[in-house]
Amino acid sequence: MERGCPTAGRLAGELRRLVLGAAENSLPDFAGRPIFDGPLVGIVDGDDRVFRALREAVSPRHFLPREVLGRPDGPVRVLSWALPFSRDIIVSNRSGDWPSELYSVARNNGGALNLELGRRLSDWLRREGFAAISPVLSDGYDAFRCPERGLSSNWSERHVAYAAGLGRFGLNGCLITPRGAMVRLGSLVTDAPLDVRPRREADHRAPCLRDGGAGCGLCLRKCPAGAISSSGLDKEKCYLRRQAIRERSLGDYSGKFRMLAAPIVKGGRKADGFSLGCALCSSGVPCESADPAPGAV
Ligand code: SF4
Ligand code: SF4
After folding, report:
1. Residue-wise pLDDT tens digits, 176-220
2. Whose CA is nearest to atom 8 of ligand 2?
3. From ligand 1's centre to the CA of 219, what distance in Å?
4. Which of 5, 146, 233, 287 places its Cα 20 to 30 Å from the Cα of 32?
5. What separation in Å is there between the alpha carbon of 82 and the centre of ligand 1?
6. Angle formed by the axes of helices 235-256 and 101-127, to 10°?
7. Of the bound ligands, which one is closest to the alpha carbon of residue 171?
8. Which tens digits make up the pLDDT trace of 38-91?
9. Cβ(225) to ligand 2 under 6 A?
10. What is the number of H-type helices and E-type strands within the chain?
């Protein structure tokens, strides 16, 4: 580690302070309940070959970390974080065919906070003397339909979190972290020469994705849209269900609750909006709050 560089522990401590101390981390319409617990953090070298593989797995347009930073040489690191939803929020979303109000507002406001965290942690690193940028806040970030992969983007937080050793993909398409799948993910790219932690996972798939859910499969049975099969997640069916949730609930929620707006990027256009989700396939299941097969390779 070079002189003057913040340690990974100090950076993780700063992120924790930013999450737990943020005004946006409490829900005024739900007795000030916190949205997130403290974050999990992973760090990967920006030149790791996994990032080239993401051009196959996610989209040929997926950024390389060096491109994000605009640096042809020198150190490049990617810091990825997972923000676990607090227990009440998870419990509220365990049953039924529609996501709970508490989860829906927490997801929306937590998503807005997550973007702010990318900005605030990058600002902190810049004050320490390093370049830093959260790719989803960069001008070039986009979410789009890709002929080979359907719904896609040029910076997939799920795949980047896998690259940084934060977990493996489950049958439900979520990244199963040591704190489970009920998390929101974010990341930034920096030239701070942070120590890299080696990725433990030899396979990007959790055991349940490898065996088609034979040993569990609960998410497959829980999804009201039939979007999960033994081969994994059908992103299009899931998207259509989330659109239906949005049409059913957004007008009601935005009149009833304090919902934070945040930039949403789609097809090259950016506009402030609200994000509603579902997550019935990751609540009330074995991978909800922990990795059910932590030692399995
Ligand atoms: S519910 Fe079971 S099968 Fe589905 S992702 Fe979680 S552990 Fe895997
Ligand atoms: S988020 Fe909802 S619609 Fe999508 S796979 Fe999970 S349960 Fe199904």
Report:
1. 999 999 999 999 999 999 999 888 777 999 999 999 999 999 999
2. 223
3. 6
4. 287
5. 18
6. 90
7. 1
8. 999 999 999 999 999 999 999 999 999 999 999 999 999 999 999 999 999 999
9. yes
10. 9, 14
